[in-house]
Specification:
CATH superfamily of the largest domain: Isopropylmalate Dehydrogenase
Helix content: 25-40%
Order of helices and strands: EHEHHEHEEEEHEHEHEHEEHHH
Shape: globular
Number of domains: 2
Distance between the termini: 21 Å
Number of strands: 12
Strand content: 15-25%
CATH architecture of the largest domain: 3-Layer(aba) Sandwich
Number of helices: 11
Length: 331
Amino acid sequence: MHNITLIPGDGIGPEVAAAMKRVVDSTGVQIQWEVVEAGEALIEKYGTPLPEYVLDSIKKNKIAIKGPITTPVGKGFKSVNVTLRQTLDLYVNLRPVKSFKGIPSRYENIDLVIVRENTEDLYAGIEHKIGDYGAESIKLITRPACERIVDFAFDYSVKNDRKLVTTVHKANIMKLTDGLFLQVSKEIAEKYSSIDFSDLIVDACCMNLVMTPEKYDVMVMPNLYGDIVSDLCSGFVGGLGMIPGANIGKEYAVFEAVHGSAPQIAGKNIANPTAIIQSAVMMLRHIGEYECAEKIEKSLAKVFEEGKVLTVDLGGTATTEEFADEIIKNL
């Protein structure tokens, strides 16, 4: 029996999380779900969108999966996602980007993995005002953080039969910060002779990905670039509604749908639950339930290829529940 924290989130979060839970439970895997609430609706009661009991649950169970959570704009609250990553030291953000036959796209056979450093860079949130004149944000890059994220990328490549790791940076301009990330990447690469290594400046990276994404395999980069590049790559395979995500540290792992909470369609039963279902596939593999993960992935592929039961964003008319029902039927 696996004890797992489930954070439904807000907006469309509860709907897609419920669909994911039904799909996972239908595989026969033994999971005891501990459901805990987080999000904008809790601010009035707890003074924060991330009450302490959420962190307590994750620390107890070690594994969590979450739906999207709204970050209030201009209200002084830090992103729940960023807070979770920093508080639990979830230093890896892992986002596989893979094509499914049947999903409309200009690209075919996409199979990329973005490995994003999760705890520092400009996302450390070290900012201050310069009087009324301006504001300054500090870009923090440390050697230990560089070493562990790049080592993760290479180790992941070895374990998953990947051939190339590409470090993405802007060391031609930010010679000290991104220069350190690049230097550490070169040092780590020397320890993995079976994996090819290259590096790419982030602006050239975006252009090359759009033109020839098939050239790339595993890509590792600092926090901000990882956020941007992973969203760019999601466009190759149908958008953020298709992309899974995992935040992984030494002790804890939190799996998540990487798209927003889409409050404009909340409660309409039309949201695409693929992202959180694919995140659950990653979670199942992480806890050693490979057979159940494989069942879901194959069922998803069949649903997409047949194209009979698709949600509105994918050109279909199916509801969130009908889409989940179709996956379950194919299991």
